[in-house]
Specification:
183 residues; alpha+beta; 3 helices
Length: 183
């Protein structure tokens, strides 16, 4: 009876111990464009927490990140990483040229790469705001316990899913700083 109970507990706990690693790996997408000879590594889009805009209303703000490497490679050290925000709002971020992040109580500032507006294909307004950060800044975010941000007038906080995606993205780089064992 005791061994049956232990076996039942192991069966229940084993998938939950395995699934997080599988789901984290699936947050990173790697694709190769043979015509441009570029490999893109990116995270899946995920909602950020506690998003409050200039009108003090909750908003739907999502984040994903990416970097591009020359050639068909599995790992590289990019010069820059793009943080890409998607806002399901109308004109909320039209003048949002600054992104300020507080990474474990230390400021990090970036500038806008691009802004575009339109709809999501179903008639809902959507804005895309892209920022560039250094690889070192991505590594700081990936190691952080807490990241808060302000995109123009909109304040937000990165949640565990956002940070986990940044950690997986950072681990895809050739970074001796994140590796536990040399290859």
């Amino acid at each position: 009876m005791k061994s049956a109970l232990i076996l039942a507990i192991m069966v229940v706990l084993t998938p939950s111990a395995v699934c997080p690693a599988q789901s984290l790996r699936s947050t990173v997408n790697v694709s190769y464009d043979k015509f441009d000879d570029l490999t893109e590594v990116s995270t899946s889009e995920s909602k950020v927490d506690d998003v409050v805009g200039r009108k003090k209303e909750k908003q739907d703000l999502r984040l994903h990140a990416r970097y591009v490497c020359a050639g068909k490679v599995s790992r590289c050290r990019p010069d820059k990483v793009e943080l890409m925000f998607v806002s399901y709002s109308l004109g909320e971020h039209i003048r949002s040229h600054d992104l300020i992040l507080i990474v474990d109580e230390k400021r990090m500032r970036t500038t806008t790469l691009s802004w575009s507006g339109g709809d999501d294909g179903a008639g809902h307004p959507v804005e895309h705001i892209d920022f560039s950060i250094s690889m070192e800044d991505l590594l700081r975010i990936a190691r952080a316990e807490k990241v808060e941000g302000k995109l123009g007038p909109t304040a937000f906080k990165l949640n565990d899913d956002n940070l986990a995606a940044m950690r997986v993205l950072a681990s895809e780089m050739e970074s001796p700083m994140l590796r536990e064992t040399p290859e």
